[in-house]
Amino acid sequence: AQTVTQSQPEMSVQEAETVTLSCTYDTSESDYYLFWYKQPPSRQMILVIRQEAYKQQNATENRFSVNFQKAAKSFSLKISDSQLGDAAMYFCAYRSANRDDKIIFGKGTRLHILP
Amino acid sequence: DADVTQTPRNRITKTGKRIMLECSQTKGHDRMYWYRQDPGLGLQLIYYSFDVKDINKGEISDGYSVSRQAQAKFSLSLESAIPNQTALYFCATSDPNRNEQFFGPGTRLTVL
């Protein structure tokens, strides 16, 4: 069975600085998708970024980018120029490309932005 | 306008009561999901449905049931609520062509 591990329950970063959130996963599959979701205090789940495992190029969305290391089964999220609105829970998630599209979530990392 | 809506947004109930959480979507997606979120545990899948006649159990289906009344509606029921079902519940829909799930705003349920 697939698992997703986020080893940092909480992190803090100074406003305008860069922070990296870690995620590792375990799977025997070769084709899958990885996601980072943001959950602000409003509790809405918001997709931040998506990575297809067959793509070697790391995904980027404005200030958000990932470091996808397929062999190491690592999928970290880098937030550049951190803003107060980035404060939230961040969830790493995995979806198999070969089965039902159920998503497996990590336990989350709470990110604090220090003004 | 919200694409995935959930009602109620907050609910307090007592042990043993039957409660239904409702989810509606205007995205036209066939696939719908119910998740439960507990502090420190992320989201866990309760039930999912690929169409009106295809309903499947997720990781933590015990104590829950679902009904897919139409493509746009997917309800979650707790037949006899218990305190450890106190949690945040999310409905989601899926667009397999975009490999993405879209979440509703969540329902916070408290069972006393």
The percent of residues in helical segments of chain B reads under 10%
Structural Rg of chain B: 13 Å
Please give the number of β-strands of chain B. 11
Q: What is the terminal separation of chain A in angstroms?
A: 41 Å
H/E element order of chain A:
EEEEEEEEEEEE
The end-to-end distance of chain B, rounded to whole angstroms, is 33 Å
Task: Please tell me the overall pLDDT of chain A.
Answer: 93
Assess the beta-strand content of chain B as a share of residues. Answer: over 45%
DSSP summary: helix tally of chain A:
0
Q: SS-based structural class of chain A? A: mainly beta
Average pLDDT of chain B: 93
Description:
The complex is a heterodimer of chains A (115) and B (112). With 115 residues, chain A is mainly beta. Helix content of chain A is 0%, strand content 53%. Chain A is built from no helices and 12 strands. Chain A has strands at 3-5, 10-14, 19-21, 24-26, 32-39, 46-52, 60-61, 64-69, 74-79, 88-96, 103-105, 109-114. The model of chain A has no long low-confidence stretch (mean pLDDT 93). Chain B has strands at 4-7, 10-13, 19-25, 31-38, 42-51, 54-57, 64-70, 73-78, 87-95, 100-103, 107-111. In chain B, a hairpin with a 2-residue loop joins strand 7 and strand 8. Chain B is globular. The interface between A and B is medium-sized, with 22 and 24 residues.
